[in-house]
Amino acid sequence: MPSIRLPLRGRLLLQRRRKLLQARRFAWDAASRIAFGNVSRDTASQTPRRKYAARVPVDERREQLLDAALHVLVRDGYENVTIEAISQEAGVTRPVVYGAYDGLEPLLHALLDRTQGRALGQAMQLLNRSGDATDIDAWLIGATSGIIDVVQDDPDTWAAVLYLNAGAPAIVRERVAETRELIRQYVCSGLEAGMALRGGPDLDPQILSHLVLVTAEEFGRLILEEPPRYDKERLVQAMTNILRVLPKD
């Protein structure tokens, strides 16, 4: 019986049909393996899985997010502090951030409150434990040593206070000015009594308190910028030398 040979067009159609059937069969086999759990471990390991942040108490999460926001702020500036940047820094998703704070504005207000509270609390604590007006030289030297310690221990908080005032929103500048004035007034009251007990010199304590505060802030910047060059011993010695040349009656 002679063989029957299909025309070229027919052979092409048949080949396409066979390929289509093979593709369908392959897809069906793959679907069956997935449905009935027959996927190999190698294949499963190649499937990306979304990472979820571990559940933590809301207060702990808020502190984590404030820390992340502060890192972004100090590193990138106010204009780059976004929910996306904060979530990436904290290693969480955006919904986690929104679950802790209603948005960027309340988060930044909370960060401002925390930063002001920390800076003011640390400054007042070190001034209180550095001595009193009965020995104004020892008080100022102790305060110089103390401010260097707190800046080194909490660099992000103090970098936000000492560096970022120029490009900050108005509310931040107002808070920084408010904090500085509270500290200056405390220093001024100590200088007023201490210089009299010291026996001079006869300097305006209001003006002198501004000079002391500016010096302390500059020492803080130096210890953040060039700690090997301007170490604690050098800065404390500088304050000691300044006080040593001030005359007494």
Automatic annotation (TrEMBL):
Keywords: DNA-binding, Transcription, Transcription regulation. Pfam families: TetR_N. One of its GO terms (molecular function) is DNA-binding transcription factor activity. Residues 82-101 bind DNA. Residues 59-119 form the HTH tetR-type domain. This is TetR/AcrR family transcriptional regulator. It comes from Nocardioides jejuensis.
